Amino acid sequence: MTDGRTTGTARAFELLEPLVQAATVRVHAPPRGYDASGSLRTGPTWGSGFFIAPGWVLTCAHVVGEGGAAVRLTGREVGITFHSGRPGGHGAVTGTVTGRVECVLPERLEERRPARHALWDLPDLALVRVLAPVSHTCVWLTDRSRPRFDEVAYFGCTEDLGAPEITGRTTRLRGTAGQGAAIRLAHDDEIDPGMSGGPVVDLARGEVVGVVKARRHTGGGGLAVSVVQLRTLPMPARGQVGLYRRVMQAHDLHHYDQHLSDLDNRRTWTDVHGELPPEEHDPYGGRGRLTPGERTTLCGLLAELPPPGSSEVVRALVEAARGEEPDPQPPAPLSWRDGLGLLHDPPAGTGEAAAMLRYATDVSVADHREPPAPGADEELWDWVRATAERLWRPLRRELGERHERGLAERERRRRASAGRVLQGAPRRSGGLPPGASVLLEVWAHGWENLYDWRVSVLAGPAHPGRVTPVDSGVRATVAALPEHLGVPLAEAFRRCDTHEAAALLEVAVAPELFGLGVDEWVLTGGVPLGVQRPVVLRHPGGPGTRPGPAGAHPADHEASAAAARWARVQTGPLQDERADCAGGRPRAPAAAWLSALPDNTVPVHCRAADQEPTLGALHAVRDAGYGVAVTRRPPEPGGSCAPFHRGLREELADAGRAEVLPVRLQTLRGRVYGADPDAYWAAGTGLVWEDPARPLPDVEPLHGDL
Question: CB–CB of 111/306 below 8 Å?
Answer without folding.
Answer: no
